[in-house]
Every structure is written in structure tokens, then in C-alpha cells.
Design brief:
The protein is α/β, with parallel strands linked by helices. The chain has helices at 13-23, 34-40, 43-51, 67-77, 90-103, 117-125, 138-141, 149-158, 173-178, 188-191, 196-209; strands at 3-8, 29-32, 56-63, 81-85, 106-110, 131-135, 162-165, 183-186. Helices cover 47% and strands 20% of the residues. The chain has an eight-stranded parallel β-barrel, surrounded by eight helices.
Length: 210
């Protein structure tokens, strides 16, 4: 069954916990966005895991170097999954995977900004990562002409476990899942909604139906 991941791009632990409390019944993975972790430090990871021990807590570190060290920090703080950049060297990814194995946790490779996301996803899957995030970042999404269809098409042909992040919403989440994505990552579609709980519930129902 495909999972729903909420990406929390708010900037304080208090706001993140408030949002998570509203949407937790409908999501499988709670992602702490990079700006949130940079602003609050690893304490936000611990606070979220303490509040939602039954959920996977995803620390979006976007590690580019010191893979084992940074992953170890996040896992010790309570993270279940951490991200390493696809553009990082294989040694960095391997280091993070080593830390993950020591803690019984997982590494996700984030392909944001990578020229050939499909090729890199196939390469890094062999290094022992949980899954690969086919990711168009906020800056790319705001570029004229951007369409999530590019990620959906990539997921359909990648042949390895992936998530899709890059403007997932109720209008496209069915296509995201039908393309084979194991995880649909929704950020603004949930935290930007007037009623985040009902937005998350609608996404959850669409994913289960797909």
C-alpha cells in the first residue's frame, strides 16, 4: 500500500507539532523540512518522534558530505529516515547507509537538482537505500512551464522504489500512485490548505483508491 508523507516546511517546532497533530491520522510519514531543521536543530526531530512514536519521522537533512556522521546525529535524535543528496558522492551515501544499519533505520536519496534523476535513482538503489525521492524543489516548481508530469513519467520508467515530491495535490496524486510511486509527498497541498486535516484525509482516500 502506498504511503502518504506530509512535508512540513514551517519554521518552528511549535508550528510543526501543531500541524502534525492535525494530519497524523491520515499520514504515514512526517517529514521535517530542511529549513525547519536548520532553524530548530535536531531537537525538532526528537520532539516530533516523542509526539508521534507510531509514525515514520523523516529528517530532510539533504546531507552532501559527512554522511555517516550527519545520519547518525539524526537517528540518535529519533529520525526513522534521513535524506542524502543524489549529487553527493557514493561514499557519502554509503556512510549514511552504514549509520542507518547500525540504528535499524533508513536512508532516502533526494535527487533534487540532479540532471538525470532516473539514472541516479537506479545507481544509488544498489547502495542499500530505502527508496529514492524524485524531487522537484520549490524553486523548480515556481519556474514557468514546470509540470509534475515529468516526475510521474520518471517514476513510471525508473524500475526502483521511489517517492514523488514536487507539487503533489489532489488533482495529480492518483497519477503519482499509478505511476508506481511508493510514497506521495505533499507539502503545500496540506500545510497551505484552509483545513489541513481534511486536505490530508482527501489525499489519503485518493491514494488508497488508486
Amino acid at each position: 500500500m502506498a504511503k502518504l508523507q506530509v512535508a512540513i516546511d514551517l519554521l518552528t517546532t511549535e508550528d510543526a507539532l501543531a500541524l502534525a497533530a492535525k494530519v497524523a491520522p491520515y499520514v504515514d510519514i512526517i517529514e521535517l523540512g530542511t529549513p525547519l531543521i536548520k532553524n530548530m536543530g535536531s531537537t525538532v526531530i526528537t520532539a516530533m518522534k516523542d509526539a508521534h512514536p507510531d509514525k515514520l519521522v523523516f529528517a530532510d537533512l539533504k546531507t552532501a558530505d559527512a554522511g555517516e556522521l550527519e545520519a547518525d546525529m539524526a537517528f540518535k535524535a529519533g529520525a526513522d529516515l534521513v535524506t542524502v543528496m543524489g549529487a553527493a558522492g557514493n561514499a557519502t551515501i554509503v556512510g549514511a547507509v552504514k549509520a542507518a544499519k547500525a540504528h535499524g533505520k533508513g536512508v532516502v536519496v533526494d535527487t533534487i537538482g540532479y540532471p538525470d534523476r532516473v539514472k541516479r535513482a537506479q545507481e544509488v538503489t544498489e547502495l542499500g537505500v530505502e527508496f529514492v525521492e524524485l524531487h522537484a524543489g520549490l524553486d523548480e516548481q515556481w519556474t514557468p512551464g514546470y509540470s509534475i508530469q515529468v516526475l510521474i513519467d520518471e517514476a513510471a520508467r525508473v524500475g526502483v522504489p521511489v517517492s514523488i515530491a514536487g507539487g503533489v495535490n489532489l488533482g495529480n496524486v492518483t497519477a503519482v500512485i499509478q505511476a508506481g510511486a511508493q510514497v506521495a509527498v505533499a507539502g503545500a497541498a496540506i500545510y497551505g490548505a484552509e483545513d489541513p486535516a481534511s486536505a490530508a484525509k482527501a489525499l489519503r482516500e485518493a491514494i488508497d483508491a488508486a
